[in-house]
Design brief:
By secondary structure, the chain is mostly helical. 80% of the residues lie in helices and 0% in strands. The radius of gyration is 16 Å and the shape is globular.
Length: 96
Amino acid sequence: MLALIQTVVLAIDIYWWLIIASAIFSWLFAFNVINGRNQFVATIGDFLYRVTDPALRPIRRFLPDLGGIDISPIILLLLLFFLRQFILTTLAPALV
């Protein structure tokens, strides 16, 4: 059971970094630091969008319009942090 918990925590950690990479990529794209017409850059952007958008879309639906500021990645990171801590402090000791 410990292996399953460690695998879930690792998946949460990887998804955490993908959300951060997606946010940084969107900033770089918005400020024209990276070329969106480059096929490699477009592939990375499409991958990050497809991986993170299904989790961010429901959060964006409930957030008020803040203009050009998107805080949905921050809320998702907080939720993932809570889930990770819940698994490590509550579920793991109970199962071990």
